[in-house]
Amino acid sequence: MLNSTRNVALACALSLLAGFVDGIGFLQLGGLFVSFMSGNSTRLGVSLAEAQWWQAAGALGLIALFVAGAAAGSLVVLGGGAERQPWLLLIEAVLLAGAGLCHAYGLPNLAIAGIVLAMGLENAVFQIDGGAGLGLTYVTGALVKVGQLLAVSLTGGPRWSWAPNLFLWMALVAGAAAGALAYAWINLGAIWFAAGAALALGAIVAVPMRRHRA
Asked: Which of 67, 113, 132, 214 is most exposed by smallest CB count within 10 Å?
């Protein structure tokens, strides 16, 4: 899926956005994640072992919301249509804007719920009809591919095939740093920047599609 400049640029932009949102969520939740469910799964297991039931429930709730968001995104993909990417990004922007409104009205838990749903949904942007896709809100798989494709390169394969996956990782790290700085500035209100970015990306993706159809 990272076989064109357009796809690499969009994937990196979405990974940057996911990192930004996860940095905000991590600080808001004091060590839990809004997009990195492997970390929340580890926290769930540790909390269960230590009989910290409320922490376990919080981690499990975040995981459930993320899965629900991923399912919702997949329903959009399975519904077909050439413009599903812009629609997914528009829905993501609406969820993030809703989170911003919830924060403004003193409802941080609902804000976090909207953010987690948005992060789950984002992973469907590069999903194909059969269900396979590109993970955008976590980069463990991307780092594995960096190592695997680097080995291929060293044994005579394409020299730079590993680079796009490295760019995904770099984008997420940069986004997380930016999210942490924004959170230090305006707290959970920083999520409005993410909502605007998702909306802008949706528009950028939609315009060439409209021109092509015309």
From this structure: 214
